[in-house]
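Researcher: Please generate the 3D structure of the following complex. Treat every line as part of one assembly.
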Amino acid sequence: MIGASCTVSRPAFFLGLALGIIWAGAAQSKTITLDDSGTTALDPSVSLHWKSPTPPRSGADNLMVGTTTIRVRINVTPWLRRTARIYLALPAQPPGPIGASWVAQGRFLSGQVQSGNRMLIYTGPITSPFLEDVLQLQFTMDGTRIRRAFPVTFHFEMDEG
Amino acid sequence: MHDPSSLPPASLPGVTPGAHRSGSARVGLRRVLCGAVLFGAISGLARAYTVTIDADAPQTIYLQVGVGSFTADYCGGTTYPPPHNTPNCGPAYGGGTPQNNATINLVSTTVASAAVGNGTAQAMTTNSTATNSYLDGYTFCSVPGQLYIGGFFRTAGATTAAAQVTATVPAALTDAAGDSIPFSKIQWASSGLGDTGAEPFPAGTFVNGGVQNVGSMGSNSWNESCWTFSYLNNTVPPAGTFTGVVLYTMSAP
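Model: Done. Output below.
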């Protein structure tokens, strides 16, 4: 009986270990939307204008661009004294593909992103409860998709692991 | 770096909090409870920001018959740096911005007395100096034999019906003595250097008084043609100088 008991418990041990490894893998990919409730846009709305006022003969250049300034303030208190990689995420959203590019003032990285993607905006140690910077943000979109005013949503996120 | 204490409230117009995001991992009762409390604390503060975007002055129309005006020059389209030295580039090194030009150009011909009414069409010339397209600087028309007509209809949103260009034509050209020549005695051919296919402003003949369509412009594309006018010369009017003014109008949906 004793011998039989040992034979049964060993597979159980290995099974438990395997589950633990699987769980750890899932935890590494968890993405957390950060608390950026202190972030404000200095311009209440963004007016897009034609990138080129005159259209081409082919009708293929219909890009519109518009800029705004946002003061980003991200609460990173839970990750103090840790190293983080923080992204600006621009989800895919109606009325269609939209691009965003930004120029940071030094704390964050400048960059650009197309909707449905994210771009690294900060990497390094977290040494203070808040990460702050001012971004000159420019949106670019095909003007033929703009039928009325529409909202564009973005957020900041990090992968915890 | 700015002073956080001077930050305006987070609920500015156009900046609104969005939906929360959440996630969890199932790993035993104790871990689940702890994770839920911790995650609740984080996700309860998480925000997504919504910036309201709209098209500024979504419609722009431009019609040029004869000479026109632009504020900037062509600098090579989207090519950077510009392929040639043009100091006054338009936005994105593309075309410039259209301006108003109130010039009324003249198209005329002088028929020799021996040829009056012989049925041989008489070529007309213009005092317009417009030869190059303001789109890209391309030499499109030749003067004085051709009159430039072109423009565009810029509009945001889905493709709409084409903008229409009409001519408001008097019944006749008249002279000081009150004699007249019907406007229908004037016709025009349409072409453009390097053009193939149909012209956006096709050939035609004036009506004798009224409004007639002379072309159309699809949205968000540049349209242009060069008109070559001629006088049919198949009647014998009294000697004189006959004039009339045609008004061209662009109407966008």
